[in-house]
């Protein structure tokens, strides 16, 4: 007890000193507090403004808006299935002519004809296997040389069939991810950007993934390839937005497509957590020009936020 009393007596001047210093700096602390609250308030207001602008724009979107804003032709890579096919159909529903790129000629022919008849737009296709690397791009460049590409959806992508440690991923799969997810996306925008810059308009959508924003053990190479895309997109935004080009990164979580089916039977069923590709494309197309990064669905935005993304400067 005596020890406590001695400690109290010894610490009392220190306590008084701290209290005095606190009183002296009270006003400064009040200013810091006010600035912090103001900054948080401003963030909330900006968020509300973005949300209102987003929803009004969705409702007021005229069907010819996209073509007028960016141009009448869109190129969609990986357009024969999943998210890419859904993008192609959604853009066609806005009256935009579509050039599809994928590997399989028969599938390209079928999807191309179906889009042309359903939406009454012009379509054509280029068959190219991005996994072949550099050799396929001169032909693509040649095929697109007289086309005023208004929108490029860089969608083609591959993943592992199931989660694996890096050392277990076959070499061929590693090169496929590098060739398709990284190299092809970069080359495609390298091909179409000069024309867009010349016309001072255009939009590029790079289909990344939530794995670009969340650390993904056992999908490390895939996740890293998508981080490349997401990072590239952000840098391109700064390089080209002043030249009239809109650049966007799409970062969905799980979408019910062939890509994720081998991983888990759970994903065969669609749910609020695992939307259909057409629902993702429906929402994503309506954010073109509005936000430079979107997951394409509210539930995915919540999932990415809940998991704590490694970067957070999105517009979604
Ligand atoms: N599904 C998801 O949960 C999810 C989530 C986040 C991000 N993503 C991303 O979304 C994009 C589309 O994925 P998805 O789920 O729609 O996949 P998907 O259903 O498997 O479709 C992939 C498309 O890419 C084409 N493709 C594949 N390899 C190609 C190659 N070597 N050369 C040219 N085209 C090739 C395929 O066409 P052919 O086979 O006919 O050639 C197909 O049209 C990918 O970039 C993926 O990483 C998907």
TrEMBL record:
InterPro entries in the cross-refs: 17-beta-HSD3-like, NAD(P)-bd_dom_sf, SDR_fam
- At the top level, the lineage of the source is Eukaryota
Specify the protein's topology with respect to the membrane. Answer: Multi-pass membrane protein
Q: Does the keyword Amino-acid biosynthesis apply?
A: no
**What EC number(s) has UniProt assigned to this enzyme?**
1.1.1.330, 1.1.1.62
Which GO terms of the cellular component aspect does the record hold? Answer: endoplasmic reticulum membrane; mitochondrion
UniProt KW keywords: Lipid biosynthesis, Lipid metabolism, Membrane, Mitochondrion, NADP, Oxidoreductase, Steroid biosynthesis, Transmembrane, Transmembrane helix
Tell where it localizes: Endoplasmic reticulum membrane; Mitochondrion
According to UniProt, the reaction catalysed is:
17beta-estradiol + NAD(+) = estrone + NADH + H(+); 17beta-estradiol + NADP(+) = estrone + NADPH + H(+); a very-long-chain (3R)-3-hydroxyacyl-CoA + NADP(+) = a very-long-chain 3-oxoacyl-CoA + NADPH + H(+)
Name where it mostly resides: endoplasmic reticulum
GO MF, one term, reads:
very-long-chain 3-oxoacyl-CoA reductase activity
Mention any Pfam family matching this sequence: adh_short
Pathway stated in the Swiss-Prot or TrEMBL entry: Steroid biosynthesis; estrogen biosynthesis
Biological process (GO), any one = steroid biosynthetic process
Task performed by this protein: Catalyzes the second of the four reactions of the long-chain fatty acids elongation cycle. This endoplasmic reticulum-bound enzymatic process, allows the addition of two carbons to the chain of long- and very long-chain fatty acids/VLCFAs per cycle. This enzyme has a 3-ketoacyl-CoA reductase activity, reducing 3-ketoacyl-CoA to 3-hydroxyacyl-CoA, within each cycle of fatty acid elongation. Thereby, it may participate in the production of VLCFAs of different chain lengths that are involved in multiple biological processes as precursors of membrane lipids and lipid mediators.
As for family, the record states: Belongs to the short-chain dehydrogenases/reductases (SDR) family. 17-beta-HSD 3 subfamily.
| Protein name (database record) | 3-ketoacyl-CoA reductase
Q: Which organism is it from?
A: Pelobates cultripes (Western spadefoot toad)
């Amino acid at each position: 007890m005596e020890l406590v009393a001695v400690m109290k007596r010894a610490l009392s001047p220190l306590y008084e000193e701290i209290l005095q210093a606190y009183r002296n700096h009270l006003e400064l602390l009040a200013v810091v507090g006010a600035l912090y609250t103001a900054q948080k308030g401003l963030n909330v207001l900006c968020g509300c403004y973005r949300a209102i602008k987003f929803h009004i724009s969705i409702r007021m979107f005229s069907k010819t808006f996209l073509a007028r804003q960016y141009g009448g032709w869109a190129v969609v890579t990986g357009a024969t299935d999943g998210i890419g096919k859904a993008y192609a159909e959604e853009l066609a529903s806005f009256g935009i002519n579509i050039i599809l790129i994928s590997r399989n000629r028969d599938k390209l022919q079928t999807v191309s004809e179906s889009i042309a008849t359903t939406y009454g737009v012009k379509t054509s296709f280029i068959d190219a296997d991005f996994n072949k690397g550099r050799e396929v791009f001169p032909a693509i460049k040649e095929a697109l040389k007289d086309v005023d590409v208004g929108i490029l959806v860089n969608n083609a992508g591959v993943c592992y069939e199931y989660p694996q440690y890096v050392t277990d991923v076959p070499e061929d799969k590693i090169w496929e991810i590098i060739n398709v997810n990284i190299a092809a996306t970069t080359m495609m925008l390298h091909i179409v950007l000069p024309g867009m810059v010349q016309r001072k308009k255009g939009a590029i959508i790079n289909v990344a993934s939530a794995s670009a924003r969340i650390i993904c053990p056992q999908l490390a190479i895939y996740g890293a390839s998508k981080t490349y895309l997401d990072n590239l997109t952000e840098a391109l935004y700064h390089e080209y937005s002043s030249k009239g080009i809109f650049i966007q990164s799409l970062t969905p979580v799980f979408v019910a497509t062939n890509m994720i089916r081998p991983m888990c039977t759970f994903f065969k069923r669609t749910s609020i957590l695992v939307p259909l590709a057409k629902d993702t494309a429906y929402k994503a197309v309506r954010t073109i020009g509005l936000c430079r990064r979107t997951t394409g669905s509210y539930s995915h935005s919540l999932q990415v936020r809940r998991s704590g993304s490694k970067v957070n400067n999105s517009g979604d």
